[in-house]
Each structure stands twice: as structure tokens, then as C-alpha cells.
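Bumping with the actual sequence this time:
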Amino acid sequence: MPTARGCASGLCKGFKDLVASAPRSGNTGAPLPLSSRQSVSDMKSKLIHESDGQRTYAVVMAAGDEAMSCLERFAREVGLSAASLTAIGAFRSAELAYFDWDTKSYISIPVDDQAEVASLIGDVAIGPDGKAAIHAHVVLGTRTGAAIAGHLKRAVVRPTLEVIVTESPAYLRKRHDATSGLALIDPES
């Protein structure tokens, strides 16, 4: 897979710096809500709706951004603990995976060509490690019209990925499931 701009040191080229330099409240010194600011550089995000504890964000990635690391960083930076996400756009390359029930392991599905993101859906929940965890599935359309689908492990955006993230006012937690060996959402926790 071609090299991508990851988000390990800041959400897609500058989000960490944006948070650090965000406008501050004069009373507490705390950053103002995200609705008062936008990210800089290629990755952009905007709070587009907020009501009764539910927030909806538009997150737009640009060519070269690595989709999963950007989503994971965004979830941590805004403090998501329960959310759903949908997206459309395109990838220069991607790695999908299929969960093999018999071996209890993921089988890699490399996609080494430009593909349309026909559908991307997923959720955010608190993982067993206490951090926001993204679980996303994607259907990609190839130049021949064939579809490739699976669990999204990583993908390099080209030219854009437009994501709508809808946060729930309650949190969700994942717990280790002994039968599958996976961390699955436990609505009771």
C-alpha cells in the first residue's frame, strides 16, 4: 500500500496543533467547543448539529490521508464514546479484512487500485483498553463495477472522504467475547 499521511502525531496534518492553539475561554482557559473552530490543512471537521447531548460532525479528508488513523484520532480528540459514522468518497488503495470464524482471525483483502467508497458504515465505542475504538465496514466499487467489501483496516484517501459522525449522549463499551475472540459492544455495560 502506498505511503499515506497518518494521524499518529496530529489529526491529519494539523489537528493536534489546532487543539493546542484553539481559542480559549477567558474564564477557565479551556478550549472553546469544536463548533467554534475548524481544523487546518487538508483534514477539516465541523460540528454541524448539537441538541440534547447529541452532536453531529462533518469530517472531510483529503488525498493522502490515512482514513482509519484519522478517524481514530478525531474520536479521541473530541472525546467520542458512542457514535455512528457513514461516509462516501474514494481510496487510492485500501486493506480490508474478512473475519474467518473457524480460525478466529482476519484474512487480509488488499485493494491496490483506485476504488469508489460506495458505502462506509461503522461505530465508535470505548474499547477494552478504555480508548475510543472504530469498527467500520466498507463496500468499494472498482473500475469494472465489481464490489469488494469487508472490515476496513486502513485506506489511503484520493481525492476525498466525506464522513458524517453522529454522537450519542450515552456511551458504549466493548468487552472481550470469549466465543469469537473479538471485542464486541456490550449494551449492558
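The C-alpha cells above came from a reply further down the thread. Confidence is low (pLDDT under 50) at residues 8-41.
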